Structure formats: structure tokens, C-alpha cells
């Protein structure tokens, strides 16, 4: 299982690219994203995926959003600090 960051994803076109750990572009189609409902990725998200080599280049399959990193990045309010 490879990891990478979403470089860009166009929900209207249904595809985009992930930048893998080697700095290479990996094509991702919305049908390769695991999830219910509207399947989309956001720029900068960390994802895990199966990387395959095709005649057109690298492709990501079975793409999963790294939920722990997703939850941490969505926290907009820091936890309160209490004095003892």
C-alpha cells in the first residue's frame, strides 16, 4: 500500500493526481476512491492506495483517505488548556 498527497482533484471531471513518496504523479479516477456517496478528494489530503503501472503511467486504485490525518487537519478549534 502506497501513501501520497493529493496534488489536485477536479470533482467535475472526476479525476486528479496524487503525488507519491518518490515525487511522481499518480492518476486517480473517482471510481477508484473507496467510500459511499459522492467520492471526491481535496487538495493536500493524505491518501493510501494501491499503485499500478499502466501504459499511460502510474495509477492509484483502492484509494482511501487517511482518516486520522483528515480528522487532525479538520480540527479548527484547539483543545482548551486548564490551569491546575
TrEMBL record:
Taking every annotated instance into account, which residue ranges of this chain make up the domain CSD?
A: 1-65
Q: Which GO terms describe its molecular function?
A: nucleic acid binding
Q: Return the Gene3D superfamilies for the record.
A: Nucleic acid-binding proteins
Q: Which UniProt keywords apply?
A: Cytoplasm
One Pfam match = CSD
Q: Which CDD domains match?
A: CSP_CDS
SUPFAM superfamilies named in the record: Nucleic acid-binding proteins
Main site of residence? cytoplasm
> Keyword Transcription, does the record have it?
no
Kindly indicate whether the keyword Cytoplasm belongs to this entry. yes
Q: Could you tell me which InterPro entries the record lists for this protein? A: Cold_shock_CspA, Cold_shock_domain, CSD, CSP_DNA-bd, NA-bd_OB-fold
Q: Where does it sit, as one GO cellular component term?
A: cytosol
Q: Where are the transmembrane segments?
A: none
**Subcellular localization:** Cytoplasm
Report the domain of life of the source organism: Bacteria
Name this polypeptide is given: Cold shock-like protein
From what organism does this protein derive? Answer: Anaerohalosphaera lusitana
